[in-house]
Amino acid sequence: xxxxxxxxxxxxxxxxxxxxxxxxxxxxxxxxxxxxxxxxxxxxxxxxxxxxxxxxxxxxxxxxxxxxxxxxxxxxxxxxxxxxxxxxxxxxxxxxxxxxxxxxxxxxxxxxxxxxxxxxxxxxxxxxxxxxxxxxxxxxxxxxxxxxxxxxxxxxxxxxxxxxxxxxxxxxxxxxxxxxxxxxxxxxxxxxxxxxxxxxxxxxxxxxxxxxxxxxxxxx
Length: 220
Known about the structure:
The protein is mainly alpha-helical. The protein has a domain at 87-210: Cytochrome Bc1 Complex, Chain D, domain 2 (Orthogonal Bundle). It contains 7 helices and 4 strands. The chain has helices spanning 2-20, 87-90, 103-106, 113-127, 129-132, 165-174, 188-210; strands spanning 92-93, 96-97, 175-176, 179-180. Strands 1-2 form a two-stranded antiparallel ribbon. A hairpin with a 2-residue loop joins strand 1 and strand 2. The chain is elongated.
């Protein structure tokens, strides 16, 4: 019995050495890798050639609309409110949420408000429409896939008298309930732009209701 074990062990050792070789042995073909450990990655290296592109350059120009992380003097052009205080950054005045836009901090006047609302509509469409719907009725695409209790922004409890602008800003930045916060992706100015756009939507809906116009369809 022992001799069969020794024979099997010897054959196994020869097989292992024959397949994997011995330490320091050189092969003409690449070795077999069971765990590559990301030694080779499909990625672009700055200041290095890359045959994937027609001009052979790995360094690419930023796509249109890209925003810099910082300027040459190290000042960040986009504010995300981290570590900042005050109504503009938090939506709160002392221990209470405030109402109204921080017009001076935003640099807004009657002439610049239309462009500010257009920006709010664009950012709302990107960040809010999937859940709240394009009309704010809470019937975005996610409502058809089991995500319940999405806020209908036209419900009276979300009006300015019950739900201050600062509180809406705070929820956009930090989230609430099932909603994740957008503090890391939406700059401060864009959060206020969304608040302004939501208020404009609510006012338009209230005016339409007063005039007896039909409700927006569920697909909106």
